[in-house]
Design a protein that fits this description.
single chain; about 300 residues; mainly beta; Neuraminidase; 4-stranded antiparallel sheet
């Protein structure tokens, strides 16, 4: 299922993305059913809700970060940095100051999750791929070519987009989340790294965990923090290690949830936010916990 899910406290549902299938779904809490939500979703990936209950989505196809307003309209938050197009926002998390922090790898330039760059573009330099095939909307909205390496950005309520962590510091950033007190920012880049949040920027990069369990690499994709500061990460690993891992604030493994298939993303769901909702390769799973997730989304 791919894209990071998010819980709507007001709507009482989980929204999640099938990135390659180009559909957003909702798991309706009271009805206990999954229904299509937005189709096409424009290869949306990560989702969250801000502190006003508005859905934020990463659209790979149009290579932009958008916000769905409460009246049903849509606002484009970010599609460029310093006048040049970004790649394709992947994962996203809100901050109490109204800012939105997001990672920007190049997943949207793939055939399965968006459309290739134009011939000569950064990720189609030799012109091997034709971005016009099967993607009639390419170029109508959003960029055709990313201009930057995979960076991590901060969108400010003023509309300004700032580079927070360059690719040279965290190459290929993926999952992103804050600690419950918003003093620590976590970023997934094959391993999980932590930074101290200093206003609108971060300092003190350090390895949080290498995601190794019993000598097996439990490849993380998405993650969320609970109210105790523990980090729950998905695990795309061999059978027996696929599912979810849980790490305490010091990066020590507390435990794991085993699933019969690889898992991509997760969130805390339910009216009490005490259920772990996991999107796996072909299924979604939910498990009640003895802890609540940190809000929102």
């Amino acid at each position: 299922m791919g894209g990071r899910p998010a819980w709507s406290g007001e709507g009482q549902y989980v929204v999640f993305s099938d990135v390659q299938g180009d559909v957003q779904y909702r798991y309706l809490w009271d009805a206990r059913i999954v229904v299509p939500f937005r189709s096409p979703s424009f290869n949306s990936n990560g989702n969250t809700f801000d502190f006003q209950g508005r859905q934020i989505s990463c659209q790979h196809y149009f290579r932009r970060l958008v916000r769905w307003e409460l009246d049903g309209s849509m606002t484009v938050l970010a599609d460029s940095f310093e006048g040049k197009p970004i790649n394709s926002p992947n994962d996203v998390c809100p901050h109490p100051d109204g800012s939105i922090w997001f990672t920007d790898p190049a997943s949207g330039s793939s055939l399965s999750e968006g459309h290739p760059d134009q011939p000569g573009g950064m990720r189609n330099a030799d012109g091997l791929f034709d971005p016009r095939l099967g993607v009639s909307g390419a170029g109508l909205v959003g960029s055709m070519n990313g201009a930057y390496p995979a960076n991590t950005y901060r969108w400010d309520p003023s509309g300004r987009v700032d580079l927070v962590i360059p690719n040279s510091v965290i190459p290929g950033p993926n999952g992103i989340c804050f600690s419950p007190d918003y003093k620590t920012l976590y970023i997934i880049s094959t391993q999980i790294y932590a930074f101290d949040v200093q206003g609108k920027t971060v300092t003190n990069k350090r390895l949080f965990t290498d995601c190794m369990v019993d000598g097996v690499y439990c490849h993380p994709d998405g993650m969320r923090a609970d109210r105790a500061g523990n980090i729950w990460a998905s695990s795309n690993a061999p059978l027996g290690y696929s599912g979810s891992t849980c790490w305490n604030p010091a990066g020590k493994l507390l435990g794991r949830i085993r699933l019969p298939e690889t898992a991509a993303n997760l969130c805390f769901a339910g009216p009490k936010r005490n259920h772990l909702f996991i999107t796996a390769a072909q299924s979604v799973y939910m498990l009640p916990l003895a802890i609540q997730g940190a809000a929102p989304g």
